[in-house]
Write a structure and sequence with these properties.
It comes from Roseibium aggregatum (strain ATCC 25650 / DSM 13394 / JCM 20685 / NBRC 16684 / NCIMB 2208 / IAM 12614 / B1) (Stappia aggregata). With 352 residues, the chain is α/β, with parallel strands linked by helices. The protein is built from 13 helices and seven strands. α5 crosses α9 (228-238), α10 packs across α13 (316-337) and α11 (278-292) packs across α13.
Length: 352
Amino acid sequence: MAKTDFDELMSIGIDIGKDTFHVVGFDTDGQLVLRRQIKRLALIAVFEKLPRCIVGMEACLSAHFVSRSLRKMGFEPRIIPAIYVKPFIKGQKNDYNDAEAIAEAALRPNLTVVPEKSQEQLDLQALHRVRSRLVSRRTATINQIRAFLIEQGITVRKGLRALKNSFEAILKEREDEISPRMRTILIGLYGDWLWLDERIDTVSKEIEQISRTEENCVNVMTIPGIGPMISTAMVAAVGTGEAFERGRDFAAWVGLVPRQYSTGGRTVLGRITKRGSRYLRMLFVQAAKVILMRTNRWPDFSFGGWLTKAAERMNRNKLAVALANKLARMAWSILRHKSAFDAPRDEVAIGV
């Protein structure tokens, strides 16, 4: 293609891969004028030769880095959720068809795009992901210790603390029942457990330190039940919340709203959608359960009256999800308007 074919480029779609990118571009008449595969390292060199226009890409691991790089060059990058690209795919799925669908989706005037994350947000998000992985590994290690003990006919009551407090006593009192090799295996697993505890504590302290110095986190933590984990995870995920027009939109993104199937004027609501951020949804539900455990504190909160009435008509799990939805909406409002919650903070509020 001649270089002049690129002069009227209107939109470009990038299908981001690990080592290569597939690039498709349309001109102002909607004609395909660019279709090529480039190496990741050649991204800057290739786009320097192209006219500045809209550049769409699916939300993925390196999308924010690519978006920042292109924005510095004068392009208008748009990070699009994959679910909004799928309707535009024509024919069978391949890299060029995906890039073409992204280029078309990027031109939609009412398209919801993913806000570009700053390096600080990515760092904070990485801390949460590391902590989540460590907690998962610790749970797996504890479960394996329990499983090996059960194979030896030894059961321990539920709870992490119960197993930790009784582990050394079990090895000592049941020495005749546990073989030397199994004893060595259990001691090794227990050492892994202690190491994971130490790593989790280190990462958690770093997250808590950030929550005390970040203004948005401090504001969000004034909400009952919300502590350093939720506040920092929320700031890492949505920044100041400008991507959402209202708290209901944020709650829907977290997946705390009923699944809707409506047709012919008949509305059918089911279980929650569980779309969006699974991690944030889990944290909000945990925060809700912390509040529900202390019924004597409900009157201290501005939403205490609503919570009392809701408890009369909902079972415990449904009430926890409803409260998590309310907490998410309040958290978005505080984050977006840079304000504090209207109820005083107390020990119940220091939760997740």
